[in-house]
Write a structure and sequence with these properties.
By secondary structure, the chain is an alpha/beta fold. It has 2 domains: 9-234, 3-Layer(aba) Sandwich (Rossmann fold), CATH 3.40.50.300; 239-482, P-loop containing nucleotide triphosphate hydrolases (Rossmann fold), CATH 3.40.50. The chain is 32% helix and 26% strand. The chain is built from 15 helices and 24 strands. The chain has helices at 15-20, 41-54, 68-76, 106-125, 135-142, 145-161, 175-182, 254-259, 280-293, 307-316, 321-326, 342-356, 366-369, 376-392, 488-491, and strands spanning 9-10, 25-26, 30-34, 59-63, 85-89, 129-133, 165-170, 187-194, 202-210, 220-225, 228-232, 248-249, 264-265, 269-275, 297-302, 330-334, 358-364, 396-403, 422-431, 434-444, 454-457, 464-468, 472-473, 481-482. The strands form 5 sheets. Strands 5-4-6-7-3-8-9-10-11 form a 9-stranded mixed sheet, with helices on both faces. It has a 9-stranded mixed sheet with strand order 16-15-17-18-14-19-20-21-22, sandwiched between helices. Strands 1-2 form a two-stranded antiparallel sheet. The model is unreliable at 94-106 and 486-497 (pLDDT under 50). This is non-specific serine/threonine protein kinase. It comes from Skermanella aerolata.
Amino acid sequence: MPEPVPMKKLMTGIPEMDLVLRGGLPCHRLHLLEGVPGAGKTTIALQFLLEGVARGERGLYITLSESTDELTAAAASHGWSLDGIDVFDLIPIEAELERQQSVLYPSEVELGETMRLITDRIAADQPDRVVVDSLAELRLIAQDQLRYRRQILALKQAVQGRQCTTLVLDDLTSQAGARELHSLMHGVISLEMIERSYGAARRRMRVVKMRGTDYQSGWHDFAITAGNVLVFPSLIAEEHQSEFEPSTLSSGLAELDDLLGGGLTRGTTTMLVGPSGAGKSSLALQYVMSAVRAGEHGSYFSFDEAFGTLTQRSTALGLDLAEAVESGRLGWHRANPSRLSPGEFVWRVRREVEDNDARIVVIDSLNSYLSTMPEETALILQMHELLTYLNNQGVATILILAQQGIIGDIENPVDLSFMSDAVVLLRFFEAGGEVRKAISVVKKRTGIHELAIREFRLFPDGMKVGPKLLEFQGVLTGVPSYGGPLDPLLRGEGETG
């Protein structure tokens, strides 16, 4: 049996999109790029043609919906020039229809003439890459689904006979008509734009079909910026494995490391859980700065706190966060949940690990991450895949989860403990007329940890972990009882009469 011959592919000009397509679009085939108006079809099509120009190929853009001036202005907004791309401005020829026919319907005349002009121009230019924008105009001219399908089939045969790779655009004005096209196309890529109740719209794409070739299925977030289309392929953790030594990462505080059985284990996820203000971010800073001082690269992704306030707090703890960021030893990223898509966030984390060799990653906080979109189940699955990836890379990951409430009845917004290998619990408790902090480790899969509850202080002398709270009962409830020796005055000693 002869071995299968790999299909030749063309790069799209968008590297991460080529990753999703496992190498690009198959050559000399007809492909459909569909999506609602504003989803990014024209921008992707222009990058496809510009990539061909960069490779010395001929490009042809056939437009039925936008004028040449509009197309040139759209390209200029990205800093692109259409030099090297032929633009065929083909507005449907309604003027011809003034000559009414007695045998043919006007739509038949216009559709046939429009398709003839398209195929004649392709034959004359002999392009390597063609974009037809858009099929919605042809569908409106045809008025009849059968006639429209026959003309698209004729276009397919014409472009394949010319050995050119064609990308046709459709704005989904007719859902039924769009689905009919899928069977005629070699490949179909669908774009989607989701309007949030607040914040930037979320764009994503998926490969619906691509005959004879492999591709990464599922939805992939993407963003359009000035001069770029950035695709964020969905993460498959199993494709990223690495060998590493499961050593421990010290915090620089012996008492804290003892509590965790020696420190954080590489290739595991530690969740810091507690109410707001209990010291979760400060504890994470202690570990990430300890790694930086040891010569490793760390990354801190903050959804909640600005760099200025985090820097002030780190200085009070004796940690020079600003210097570490300026020197490039610590990557600090402000993640805005109203502007950031989940796919882009995962991609940013991957870039820190793969490009900068980050050995410790902090995500602060999971609460804000879960607010990036309402599909909570999908977000949890995506976070689980990210944590698996980080563990496979030997990264020590710290997740911060803020609980609802301050003292007493405290609730988790969502149960994510199954994602973590270790759970560190921070609590406020009332004692001696003061609000104090307590720290304990309630779970560690990779080794033995202390079962003790210790007092935890941050200021004014920097972070300190105190001795075991042996004489208190009910510390985790927030209102403990004291079981130690009483003060002489309280016992009645020294009283007279």
